[in-house]
Amino acid sequence: MRFNDWTSTACALLLAACALFLATPLRAAEFTSEQKAEIGKIVKEYLLANPEVIKETIDVLDTREKAAEASAREKTLTKEADKLFNSPNQAVVGNPDGDVTLVEFFDYNCGYCKQSLANVAKLIEVDPKLRVVLKDFAILGPESVEVAEVATALRHQFKGPKFWEFHKKLLGARGHIGKAQALAAAKELGADMDLLDKDLKSPSIHESLLEVSKLADDLHFNGTPSWLLGKEAIVGGLSYAEMKSKVDNTRKCGKATC
User: Fold this and answer.
1) Which of 30, 51, 164, 234 could form a disulfide with 26 if both were Cys (CB 3.0 to 4.6 A apart)?
2) What's the pTM?
3) pLDDT in tens, 142-173
4) What's the rounded Cα separation, in Å, for the pair 151 and 181?
5) Domains located in the chain, CATH noted
6) What average pLDDT does the structure give for the chain?
7) 3-state secondary structure of 234
8) β-pair partners for 227
9) For every residue of 139-189, which 3-state class applies, written as one string?
10) Going by DSSP bridges, is the β-strand pair 100-106/130-136 parallel, antiparallel, or unpaired?
11) Sign of the CA dihedral 256, 116, 153, 73?
């Protein structure tokens, strides 16, 4: 059983105990040790005799949680649309004037993000009307934050295809990377290192990453990669076929799933 399942089960048991407590006119402080033991016994016996209650409770909790997440995402997509799709605190690759925008929340040390890179690159290559927004969602430790800071600062120098080359170089690197690898990649691609060092000290770097983190929280994104396409939020890796289908659907009917 997964951790979330154990958590849901515990919630189910707690709810059952609370229901029994509320049905009793006595306050908790007025229960004797014998009464508390009896309540525990009754709850245990009931659940053992009716284990389906636990599953039903878990299913209800899961449905409610998913509905709440969907509602929160819909509100965020409407309220924060400009920050999500047109913020200066992001990189835009592909066609900046494309008719469909794919947003990726990623971490440079995320294995699934690395696997998705080839699919995104192929999609950009075959779809000249695709606009791709890259948002640094650095959640895999201090080194990921350092790489994201370098990438954010470098956007002052590198735009479009030039930044895309930097992005592919870093995300395509093997193993865990940090600031040293990010600076080396920037230098190799011709960055002004003195200017980069100056930009890295700007408070705007932290503000940029904070904006992305806040948007991810509001969207209930707790992992990378996570995606936005039209009004649909997707968590987890996508195959090339899945990406292309969702982009084609968005262009055809305005939704990732027609």
Assistant:
1) 30
2) 0.75
3) 999 999 999 999 999 999 999 999 999 999 99
4) 11
5) 3-70 (no CATH), 82-253 (3.40.30.10)
6) 87
7) strand
8) 104, 234
9) CCCHHHHHHHHHHHHHCCCCCHHHHHHHHHHHHCCCCCCCHHHHHHHHHHC
10) parallel
11) positive
